[in-house]
């Protein structure tokens, strides 16, 4: 802050103060603030040092009037609000995206849209130019929001593969099918043969690909795929509990269950305990995510680790690339089996 002529209240430093401190023109400072194009390394370092010394802060509103950009990004979760607080994965993704954008001095706006009305309102807000781009997180990849924003010219990166054929939306995803294969191979290696699955919704890539990986490995091992051993959940704890109850009713001789999210696995553990089944002595349980739910479970869950830090960083990288004029792209990241006491 700078003192005024009367020696009273300090005023905020301006771009002129930065230019004077750095010994460069105002235009040079402006070019540094807008990406550093056509600025020598020495001048850029002098301007950055002057910004630190003066405490200058960019006036985002004024800059947006010049550039036509808001200099902010949205984190859009198209799930009911209670899911944001229940599922620890959403918070991990939000934190990772916030940190990755902070390195570029870009704020992140959290938006929750769990109903059709909320999605319509938020779509109007986004397409009105209030955000430069959107990081979309949804359990249901058939959700049309990503496609609608993309068609409206809004840069979008989705967490998880789009299921619409021919989609041109950027996405970052873990290798769901390969992760499922690793888990089922592990359960087979523990001597289990009546292996059930609680998979995700059939309109989600996790639901489809994790089920496909489960079936592939059972087929390779010569174990018959029994539809009575397949149940569906919506990634909530309650749905995992209900699905596990259904599996136990259909197949009392169940000796293992692969649950396609750690949160659903917590529900499955509750159902197994209520039925008098010991884990892992009677039934082995495997999860997916390696979230805090896996380590807090009793017993701690063997699970498939999704690299959420890398997923967040890649989502931000792809979005910034689009904002820089690059075409949409896709990234699929490997998963890892984490062994704990539940198997």
Please supply descriptive tags for the structure shown above:
single chain, 343 residues, alpha/beta, 6-stranded parallel sheet, 14 helices, 46% helix, 15% strand, elongated
Written overview of the protein:
- β10, α12 (262-274) and β11 form a beta-alpha-beta unit.
- The protein is of the alpha/beta class and 343 residues long.
- It contains 14 helices and 14 strands.
Quick summary:
This protein has 343 residues and is of the alpha/beta class. 46% of the residues lie in helices and 15% in strands.
Helical content stands at: 40-55%
Globally, the shape reads: elongated
Q: What is the gyration radius calculated from CA atoms?
A: 25 Å
Q: State the separation between the terminal residues, measured CA to CA.
A: 60 Å
Low-confidence sequence ranges: 64-68
H/E topology pattern? EEHHHHEHHEHEHEEHEHEHEHEHEHEE
What is the count of DSSP helices, taking H or I runs of 4+ residues? 14
């Amino acid at each position: 802050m700078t003192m005024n002529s009367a020696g009273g209240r300090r005023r905020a430093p301006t771009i002129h103060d930065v230019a004077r401190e750095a010994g460069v023109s105002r235009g040079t400072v402006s070019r540094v603030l807008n990406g550093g194009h056509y600025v020598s390394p020495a001048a850029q370092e002098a301007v950055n040092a002057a910004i630190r010394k003066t405490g200058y802060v960019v006036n985002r509103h004024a800059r947006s009037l010049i550039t036509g950009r808001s200099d902010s990004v949205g984190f859009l979760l198209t799930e009911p609000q209670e899911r944001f607080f229940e599922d620890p994965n959403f918070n991990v993704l939000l934190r990772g995206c916030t940190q990755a954008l902070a390195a570029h001095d870009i704020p992140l706006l959290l938006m929750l849209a769990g109903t059709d009305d909320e999605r319509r309102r938020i779509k109007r807000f986004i397409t009105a130019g209030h955000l430069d781009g959107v990081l979309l997180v949804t359990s249901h990849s058939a959700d049309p929001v990503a496609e609608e924003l993309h068609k409206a010219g809004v840069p979008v990166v989705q967490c998880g593969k789009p299921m619409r054929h021919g989609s041109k939306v950027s996405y970052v995803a873990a290798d769901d099918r390969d992760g499922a294969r690793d888990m089922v191979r592990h359960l087979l290696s523990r001597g289990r043969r009546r292996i059930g699955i609680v998979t995700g919704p059939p309109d989600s890539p996790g639901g489809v690909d994790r089920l496909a990986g489960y079936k592939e490995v059972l087929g390779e091992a010569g174990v018959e795929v029994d539809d009575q051993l397949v149940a569906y959940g919506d990634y909530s704890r309650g749905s995992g509990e209900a699905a596990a109850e259904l599996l136990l009713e259909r197949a009392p001789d169940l000796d293992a269950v692969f649950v396609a999210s750690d949160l659903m696995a917590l529900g499955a553990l509750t159902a197994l305990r209520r039925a008098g089944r010991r884990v892992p002595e009677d039934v082995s349980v495997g999860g997916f995510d390696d979230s805090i739910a896996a380590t807090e479970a009793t017993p701690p869950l063997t699970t498939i680790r999704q690299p959420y830090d890398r997923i967040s960083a890649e989502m931000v990288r792809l979005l910034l690339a689009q904002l820089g004029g690059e075409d949409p792209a896709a990234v699929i990241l490997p998963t890892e089996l984490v062994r704990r006491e539940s198997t």
